[in-house]
Amino acid sequence: MERPKVRGPTLGTEAGRGEAAHEAEKERILSCSPLASLASPSRQALLELGSFERLARRQRLVQQGAPPRHLILLGAGRVRVERTSEGRVFPLGHRGPGDLVGESALAGATVATESATVLDEGDALLVPLAGLERLVAADAVLRAALAAALVARQLETEARLGSLLLCTVEARLLEFLGAAARRWGQPHAAGQLVSAPFTHADIALLIGSTRETVTLLLGKLKRAGLISFDRRRIVIRDGAHLAARAASV
Fold first, then answer.
1. What is the pTM of this model?
2. Among 3.40.50.2030, 1.10.357.10, 1.10.10.10, 3.30.2270.10, what is the CATH number of 168-248?
3. How do residues 159-182 score in pLDDT, each as one tens digit?
4. 114: which of 102, 135, 189, 221 is 20 to 30 A away, CA to CA?
5. Span 186-221, pLDDT tens digits
6. Please, what CATH class does the domain formed by 9-164 belong to?
């Protein structure tokens, strides 16, 4: 079977926007990323190296088995990260505003260990790895910031594994809803809207359950007045109560 072609993120560049606007967008994205506290001159060097890109739906940012090209800092949108092994696909999560994509390349891997595909249109700061490697070699501050970001990702992965092993499906669903609200939450008349359009099947894959179970549990939370729905998107009506319930189940 022919390997899927990687659609280069540069195809989404908005050439018509002015340089000043692009610089402002780059700063916005960096400021919500794990590298937000990076100070000049390290900050300025990273911004000069990176480029602002619009991300199109279904765009392949990273292809498992292909040489990685960029470290991607997401500013908006949603990206699915997954790994294929022996013909089976393992979901590694959905990344959103403030997340890194392609960070495994920082460990020196010559080929990507996962694939990343845009689910919802967004934007990102793309930093070419070749230039980033030179910056990291010469800049201890940037090196430390990236190391901290990698450790944070590892801790997040370990927490997810612990949840899958030790928590009930309802607890995992409540944790997912809280995380989704933090990452994609927008003000809504009834509370906080999770702007990313997760399907019940999406959620089931991410929390290690079935679509039917997720549907039943979401219905239970709706009847309890903790959530509602708006055009198939979840609305968190009572975030504090939802968090308390997650801690108790």
1. 0.86
2. 1.10.10.10
3. 989 999 999 999 999 999 999 999
4. 135
5. 999 999 999 999 999 999 999 999 999 999 999 999
6. mainly beta
